[in-house]
Hints:
Elements: E1 2-6, H1 10-22, E2 26-30, H2 33-42, E3 47-51, H3 59-68, E4 75-79, H4 84-92, E5 97-100, H5 105-122, E6 126-129, E7 132-135, E8 140-143, E9 146-148, H6 152-163, E10 168-170, H7 171-179, H8 186-200, E11 209-212, E12 216-219
Parallel strand pairs: 1-2, 1-3, 3-4, 4-5
Antiparallel strand pairs: 6-7, 7-8, 8-9, 10-12, 11-12
Amino acid sequence: MRVLVVEDDRELAEYVRKGLEEESYVVQVRFDGAAGLKAAEMTAFDIIVLDVMLPTLDGLEVAKRLRFQNIRTPILLLTARDSPQDVVRGLDAGADDYLTKPFSFDVLLARIRARTRSGEDRRAPVIRYADLAMDTAKHEVWRGNALLKLTRTEFSILECLMRAAGRVVTRDRLITSVWGEREITDNNLEVFMRFLREKVDLAGKKKLIHTERGLGYCLRDY
């Protein structure tokens, strides 16, 4: 389960990160609104824990911009204000829930479980594009009747491409989505892409993985 925490109070952000990682969540932390927005645009998270009062962009503006881009990741707002007007503003901006500071970590954890559970119920475990089928629960990929034997990294790259099928996925977005904060060069990515192509673009099948020069990669069947 992947969580993005956007909180400028570094002590609180570290407290939340450490607690969530102890519960086996994968956590990324950003300390201002602009960085949080970029992270949410580039990586698929299961939930975003978003402070309202942030530098560069406040949490409400971040939520609005994500929803404008049709990014439907659940958003849990953290706010020091709990008046009805403040709650309404947060929900109208696109947030799914809110939690008033100071808060109990157990309550935060329960809210996250509730929001991600409902998201899982709505999300089909199988992603399809052309004759590709990816079962994210079983970690299997099929092209037609052929089972593709992908490594964990190849699976993650292909999942990112399939979720954005028909659109260009930049190199930076792929690297951030698959490897997070680890240092991966464009040359490393090209090696993984070559291996993935050899498995996906089978002989006699239409080419699906395309390179968009100077930009990144695109999954398309035309």
